[in-house]
Amino acid sequence: MSNARNLGNITTGGHQGARVADVTTEVANLVDSAPGTLNTLNELAAALGDDANFSTTVTNSIATKLPLAGGTMTGNLTLGDSTKAVFGNDSDLEIYFDGNSKIADVGDGKLELHSNGTGVFIQKGATEYMAKFETDGAVTLYHDNSPKLATISSGIDVTGRVGIGSDSPAYALDAVGSTGNTAYLRVTRATASQGEVGVWLNDWAMYQKTNSANLHWYRAVTGDLLTLTTTGRVGIGSTDPGSTFDVRNGTANTQVASFSGADSGGGLKIKTASTTRNDDTVIFNASDAFGEIAFASDNTEVMRISDSYKVGIGTNDPQQMLHIRGTSPQIMLEDSDATGTPYSKVSGADGNLYLQADEGNEAASSFISMRVDGSEKLKLTDTTIRVGGGGSVDSANTQFNMEFPATGGINFGSGYTFSNIFGDALGNLFIKANAYPANTGSESRIEFKAANSGGGAGDVMTYAGNGILTIGSNYGTNGGWEGASSNPKLQVEQDDAYRGISLRVTGSSNVHPTLSLDRSGPSGGQTTNSAKLGQIIFNGSSGSYIGRVAASITAEQFGDYTGGYVPGQLKFNTSNTTATHNGQSPSGSHQKRLTINPAGDFLIGSQFNYHVLSGTANPNSAFQYDFYRDTYGHPMKITCAISHWNGAYMSYTEGFYWGFNTAMSSNVLHSYNGGNGSWTISFPTNNIVRVRMNGDASYAYGSGWYIKLEGNLRRTHTHA
User: Fold this and answer.
1) Euclidean distance between the first and the last CA atom of the chain, given in angstroms as a whole number
2) Is 454 left (phi over 0), alpha (psi -120 to 50) or beta?
3) pLDDT tens string 178-203
4) Helix (H) or strand (E) run with residue 680 in it
5) pTM
6) Cβ contact 37:43 at 8 Å
7) Which CB contacts under 8 angstroms, 24+ apart, belong to 361-366?
8) CA-based angle 417:420:426, to the nearest 5?
């Protein structure tokens, strides 16, 4: 040490050798006011680590440190929590850990990350990316190591959904405004001349054209479909709408517009505002009645078209295809090209209907015309009513045909002295003369007259109040009819041999004249056995009496009504000297002479006297008929025969039979069996005679046969 003191040279008081005071002074100079912990050599040695080579040790240690001018470090730089690595003269950049790793730019400049390599990557560990910033390439953001947003040369590429104001977007782009705020997506251009702006949805686009503020909806295959102008007009099929809502369709016969509401909704409502009155509206699907259209004026409904295709004016519940309701409702018809302003009206009041032609009487000769199939059928002028059926009612072809409802009619007169023509619901026609005779005390009649060639009245047909229909003349009360209390219900007078009642039919040969006499039982019920069904009586005259019966034909029921059929028989009757007519049926010598029963049997007198049966059969099968005879043994003649077209096959029997009950005698006049069966005649009971074809098994050809009985038979036969 250059400053080391040599205690050996210390002198005190000019004396050679050390004195205490001198030593103390020297020691004090040596320590030079060192602190108490370093004022002894031992303390100094301890402070130097008792290192005799302390200088070398310190030099070597300093040699391992980074110089202030910079250098290369070969080990880690470890800083404790919240211990910062501070950079810059003003400590602008800090890097530290305080529970989170932080890089903080706390100065006035900017924080820059530079890369001259492939890029800057932010990762979790060595393999999971959080973000990539690639040199001269994309910037890619990852979610859980999956790329979601990347920059590309023309913009950005998003994988998945984008939420604006939402951390769980439900759509590809989901913008949600915060509470109390709205959310907008804005697409704009810097100037109006910078081209079109819009949004594409597949092949659809919503856009604004260059230099235009109108908004258009466009489809690639069809062009502009909808336009919304800056003045609030909407054009569908039009890029220049001429009204607030302008719908156009360039395809013929194609529906232009369709509006549909919910199942129970009110549909479409169109309103026109007014400054002086309430809104006028048109409502489609009015109320909840589906398919209805309502029109309102001054906030009051005035017309409706119902879902059942009925139009109501003044009513919201039309009952017919056109239903007009109001106080004395009217329909006015005005001809715009007529001289003046003549008009007609159809009106109603209190259930009455009024037709008014030229109500203001401006046109001459006005009328009401009704036409059917292009032809005028009814014409009402100011003076006449004309009905036509064969052309115009004013032409020479006019036919006066009038038809009324089933219960309608025409009245003549008034009060209690009127007549009428009317019908009922069953289609019946009634003509009444003096409908209330009890109130007039006189008997009325109905007369039918036609002009003859001389201009006068022809034959008269009169229906009198006593129920008599007279053609040609009226015999007057009673008329001299034998025992009758009134005239016949139909009287016909003729003045030559060829006039009377004639039935004539022209046309088809299958149609023939028919005279029908019908009768029903009591109270309209069924007729019974022996009931008279009809009668034709031929009368003569004996001076002052008319109605002396000469002959008659009577139809009677033969047996009871069965199976929907009424069996009947005809009786032919004649009179000799005393037959009269009592107003109901002939009496006296008027007796039946011939009867034809339902089976075609002829009864002459009181019993059947002649009966014939015939038919075809195969004689290899036997058949028989039983005839009911008189038990008193009246004689009868029986003839029966059968034959084939071949004359060699013929069998017949003919004979007389008589006797009592089953003990009958016979005399067979002729009998022959030609090989196709034999005949047997027997009397199995007291009142039956049986005619039997026994048949021939070897002969199976169809043959014709007949059976004829002459004698006193009681009634028809039975087949066995």
Assistant:
1) 181
2) alpha
3) 776 777 777 777 776 677 778 887 88
4) strand 679-685
5) 0.36
6) yes
7) 363/338, 363/339, 366/342
8) 140
